[in-house]
Design brief:
Layout: H1 3-20, H2 24-36, H3 40-59, E1 69-77, H4 86-100, E2 126-132, E3 137-144, H5 146-149, E4 153-157, H6 162-177, E5 185-193, H7 195-205, H8 217-232, E6 246-256, E7 261-268, E8 275-279, E9 285-287
Parallel strand pairs: 1-2, 5-6
Antiparallel strand pairs: 1-3, 3-8, 4-7, 5-7, 8-9
Helix pairs in contact: 1-4, 2-3, 6-8
Bound molecules: iron/sulfur cluster.
The site of iron/sulfur cluster (SF4) has 12 residues, from α5.
């Protein structure tokens, strides 16, 4: 198979895998949440979510009617051939996946209110590049649901407000969001940089494996503290009350301007879909989140 055909094929597979089957760490977190949930209503919601996930896997159909706006996160070795063709190939893969899986057409011209019907439009799929050394291509497909996206929040704090105010803003954002992002959520917090960097970091935090501890002990403590406070809000599964509002809080940060302190909060719903694969220079394909 030619390498460009291979890239398109892998991208279609990743879109299917992410739409149909949650990564193991998310499934494990949802199962644990079900086991630990003490309220009747919360348990019913989590049981239904787990049943939904099981049916989607068995029938090879998307786990939610909202199959998301498509984001790709790429890590590419600078020696990987065909780098210039990748964006076009990913757009083609999204068009194919929309028909074949199928995915709900979710991409709309904001001025004309016209749906492109194939999930491709200006800057969509959104493609985030990171160029590193080597000759491989790592692709992560990240379909993002509208409900959780609508809850995202950004605040430009005053530097003097400090960490206490950061935590307060995260918790206020969770309370304001209520059931809208289809809890139990994963909460990504981006701190520092500029406004765009903070939100980008918050989004990238949503891609981190749930069972992986933050290597920075101080940040890990903040994640744990926020996780506990958020679950005390008792918003609960699907916003109907209960012990489980979030499965994990993940924090990423950048250094900030001396005069500003941006904080962004990004939400991911229980349908925390992501799928990653690596294409090696010799053509070998490694599926990371959904091994075959
Ligand atoms: S927020 Fe997530 S679970 Fe809720 S409808 Fe959207 S994609 Fe589905």
């Amino acid at each position: 198979m030619r390498i460009d055909t291979k890239i398109e094929e892998v991208a279609v597979n990743l879109l299917r895998q992410s739409a149909v089957k949650l990564p193991e760490d998310v499934k494990k977190a949802l199962k644990n949440a079900y086991k630990n949930e003490r309220t009747h209503i919360g348990k019913i919601q989590l049981k239904t979510i787990l049943k939904n996930i099981e049916i989607a896997e068995k029938t090879n159909t998307p786990m939610c009617q909202d199959t998301g706006l498509i984001f790709f996160y790429l890590e590419a070795g600078s020696q990987f051939k065909n780098l210039e063709k990748i964006e076009r190939l990913l757009c083609k893969a999204v068009q194919r996946a929309t028909k074949e899986i199928p995915l709900r057409p979710n991409t709309v011209d904001p001025f004309m209110d016209k749906n492109t019907e194939d999930n491709v439009g200006k800057l969509i799929p959104y493609i985030h590049w990171k160029i590193t050394e080597g000759d491989f291509l790592k692709i992560t497909a990240f379909p993002k649901g509208g409900g959780s996206e609508n809850a995202c929040a950004l605040k430009m704090m005053r530097p003097g407000d400090g960490l206490k105010a950061v935590k307060q803003f995260v918790v206020e954002s969770v309370i304001k969001a209520g059931g809208m992002p289809c809890p139990p959520t994963i909460i990504g917090v981006g701190i520092g940089g500029g406004s765009n960097i903070a939100m980008e970091l918050a989004k990238q935090a949503l891609l981190k494996p749930l069972d992986e501890l933050n290597p920075n002990v101080e940040v890990s403590k903040i994640e744990r503290e926020l996780y506990e406070i958020v679950n005390k809000t008792r918003i609960g599964p699907m916003g109907l009350g209960g012990d489980t509002t979030t499965l994990a809080v993940k924090v990423e940060y950048a250094y900030r301007h001396v005069a500003s302190y941006p904080v962004a909060v990004a939400f991911q719903c229980w349908a925390a879909r992501r799928a990653t694969a690596i294409i090696h220079a010799d053509g070998k394909i490694e599926y990371i989140t959904h091994p075959t």
